[in-house]
Amino acid sequence: MSTENSNSDFVISQTFDAPRELVFQSWVEPERLEQWWGPAGFTLSVLALDLEPGGIFHYGMRADNGYEMWGKFTYHAIEAPEKIVSVLSFADRDGNPVQHPVSATWPLFSFNTMTLAENDGKTVMTLRSSPHEATEEQHKTFLEGHESMKQGFSATFAQLAQYLATVR
Fold first, then answer.
1. What is the pTM of this model?
2. What are the domain boundaries of the chain?
3. Rounded CA gap, 168 and 165, in Å?
4. Which numeric CATH code is attached to 6-166?
5. pLDDT tens digit string along 87-103?
6. CA 92, 33, 61, 103: dihedral to nearest 10 degrees?
7. How far apart are CA 25 and CA 80, in angstroms?
8. Region for 6 from its dihedrals, namely left if φ exceeds 0, alpha if ψ lies in -120 to 50, beta otherwise
9. Selection from 156, 152, 134, 157 nearest residue 8 by Cα
10. Whole-angstrom distance, CA of residue 52 vs CA of residue 139
11. 103-138: pLDDT as tens digits
């Protein structure tokens, strides 16, 4: 197994017209996360959020048609308001890691580093994600999924931008 393969890293950045502290709070406060995190058309429920190394963000999402899925971040480092390092996995209702709902070869875990840099009242958020404890086949699947990930994160970050515009 390989845990590092920079060739399969996924990186996405977006600039928000909001101060860094507000963007950071939007990632770590349950009542804020519930306003924007996840795919469009899903309702988010924060099941647990313990913002410290070793702590977790366990969440559930429910679509209008009743479909449910869960995910979990396990925090490795939090440097407020500039960085969050975590391992992400799909999860079951109890927070146990589970395989991707539609891909048997998707990595069970991804290692994520989210950084926030403020410049003239705007915040540049950069997310870097890589397969964690993954096989070569899982690295390949992750790499092949970059375009889909870009679309998904872009839509989610658009929801964050809309949320940020309403809370100032």
1. 0.92
2. 6-166
3. 6
4. 3.30.530.20
5. 999 999 999 999 999 99
6. -70
7. 9
8. alpha
9. 134
10. 28
11. 999 999 999 999 999 999 999 999 999 999 999 999
Q: CA-to-CA distance for 44 and 85, rounded, in angstroms?
A: 21
27 closest CA partner among 168, 166, 129, 163 = 163
Label each residue of the chain as H, E or C: CECCCHHHCEEEEEEECCCHHHHHHHHHCHHHHCCCCCCCCEEEEEEEECCCCCCEEEEEEEECCCCEEEEEEEEEEEECCCEEEEEEEEECCCCCEECCCCCCCCCCEEEEEEEEEEECCEEEEEEEEEEECECHHHHHHHHHCHHHHHHHHHHHHHHHHHHHHHCC
From the list 133, 143, 83, the residue with the least C-alpha distance to 113 is: 83
Spatial distance between the Cα atoms of 119 and 143, rounded to a whole number of angstroms? 31
- Residue 70's identity, in one-letter code, is W
List C-alpha distances in Å: 114 to 65, 84, 99, 126. 31, 5, 23, 6
